[in-house]
Design a protein that fits this description.
The complex is a heterodimer of chains A (about 375) and B (about 70). Chain A contains 16 helices and 4 strands. With about 375 residues, chain A is mainly α. Chain A has one domain. In chain A, strands 1-2 form a two-stranded antiparallel sheet. Chain A has a two-stranded antiparallel sheet with strand order 3-4. By secondary structure, chain B is of the alpha+beta class. Chain B has one domain (about 1-70): Translation Initiation Factor IF3. Helices cover about 35% and strands about 35% of the residues of chain B. The chains are: A mainly alpha (about 375), B alpha+beta (about 70). The interface of A and B includes residues 156, 216 and 228 of A.
């Protein structure tokens, strides 16, 4: 039975099925209260989480989103059930930490991770097309590095307890999300104040984590494999997610096509593109999109856990140092185009330089 | 028979190294790829089969091997 289930999820239809489920759940979470076009967004939710635990004080984006721990714990459950919980460590963790931090900064300059780029497009936000172009460009650079021997080095099998640190942290965060002690911040206005009921977020997150672990769902991987090895397996899942979210949005009247003043988005083309170039390149060098990194950290990959921690810290800095973009504003018929300020632009430049240096420097010859 | 060790490498490095090794394989020759995650095993198998090679996987405890033969 387990073998048949595994074979299904490894097949094209399995990937499509998981994409459809994630797309439907994500659009449905918006109907139930999550921010517009943000049913699931790993970068945004890690930013909200960073705010909730006090790593930044932007009071409109603080909420301990249960979806983040749920993705990890859903993946843990799947990995344990199917005998795939394998603890590994030691593949350049510090490089992965900074790749995570810069990936978060890039995503917050665009205002979303690849999952949200799909959901923004499914909601009619055409700026997401620019984001996708940037993402593909960044991943394309990463694919060239990989083709020329880029590696962060080998991970080794590690002792079991190490693999439980990330799931343990996530259980702790979930407890804080339910108990809401006074030291946990929660927005009363802005995107951080918008959320689905906590048990529904938890359930949807667990299901997504479980299914994504089985099907290896990865948005970055889908583009990388198509560019690098002409393998479209993962891309079917991503397209399925887009189609499913689009269908639900159409059905519930949440499809509003256009560029200007889209929800929690800006229409600054250059920085939508460059933000995602940085993210795409950082994801490609680290071997997974932010969702995939959470899933991997649930199945014992501690290096992915370090990337996740880097993203949370990077998201904290993104708001403390005013690196994140501000959305478009439409007041009395006058549109003010958003985007990153000077600090954010410099941070993207530093992030790109970091990734390029790493890409050229970390190489190993192979036959 | 040639052997490449891709254990501990992040996705997609096992596939990239397998493809590079396959380019130098003569007809009837066998390439053995060592992997250490189910994901890498699936990816290497799928890649080899999509390139029209014979490929089978065998697990022995925590070590996994994909054996690829050029037709």
């Amino acid at each position: 039975m387990r073998h048949q289930i595994s074979a299904f999820f490894a097949s094209r239809w399995g990937t499509v099925f998981v994409g459809l489920v994630i797309g439907v759940l994500a659009a449905w979470l918006v109907v139930l209260g999550n921010p517009p076009n943000m049913g699931v967004c790993v970068a945004c939710f890690e930013r909200d989480l960073a705010g909730a635990i006090g790593l930044h004080r932007a009071d409109v984006v603080q909420y301990l989103r249960p979806e983040i721990p749920a993705f990890v714990l859903g993946s843990l459950a799947a990995a344990l059930l199917f005998g795939e919980f394998r603890v590994r460590a030691g593949s350049a963790p510090i490089a992965r930490f900074f790749l995570g931090a810069f990936a978060a900064i890039g995503a917050l300059v665009f205002l979303g991770c690849p999952w949200r780029a799909i959901l923004r497009l499914a909601g009619g936000d055409l700026n997401a097309l620019i984001g996708f172009a940037g993402l593909a460009f960044g991943i394309g650079i990463g694919a060239l590095f990989l083709k020329n021997g880029f590696t962060l080095g080998r991970a080794r099998e590690a002792l079991k307890p190490v693999g439980w640190i990330m799931p343990g942290l996530m259980i702790g965060l979930l407890i804080l999300a339910f108990v809401q002690p006074a030291f946990i911040f929660a927005s009363v206005k802005g995107p951080g104040s918008l959320h689905a009921p906590i048990l529904i977020s938890l359930g949807a997150g667990l299901l997504i984590g479980f299914l994504a672990q089985r099907s290896r769902f990865c948005t970055m991987g889908s583009i990388r494999d198509a560019l690098l090895i002409r393998d479209f397996h993962l891309l079917y899942g991503v397209v399925a997610m887009l189609v499913a979210a689009f269908a639900v949005n159409l059905a519930v009247g949440k499809f509003n096509p256009g560029f200007a003043a889209q929800p929690i988005a800006h229409s600054n083309t250059l920085w939508n593109f460059l933000g995602m170039v940085l993210s795409g390149l950082a994801f490609a060098l680290a071997g997974g999109c932010p969702g995939r990194q959470l899933i991997l950290s649930g199945e014992g990959d501690t290096d992915s856990g370090v990337f996740v921690l880097g993203m949370i810290v990077g998201a904290g800095f993104a708001h403390n140092w005013l690196l994140a973009a501000v959305p478009d504003k439409l007041a009395e018929g006058v549109l003010t185009v958003g985007g990153p300020g000077f600090n954010g632009q410099i941070a993207v430049g530093i992030g790109l330089a970091f990734c390029l240096i790493l890409g050229f420097a970390m190489r190993e010859r192979f036959e | 028979m040639k052997t490449i060790d891709t254990t501990g490498l992040s996705c997609p490095e096992p596939v990239v190294r397998t493809r590079a090794a396959l380019q130098n394989l003569a007809a009837g020759e066998v390439l053995q790829v060592l992997v250490d995650t189910v994901t890498a095993r699936e990816n290497v198998l799928r890649t080899a089969r999509s390139l029209n090679y014979d490929a089978v996987a065998a697990d022995q405890g925590s070590s996994m091997t994909v054996t690829i033969t050029k037709k």
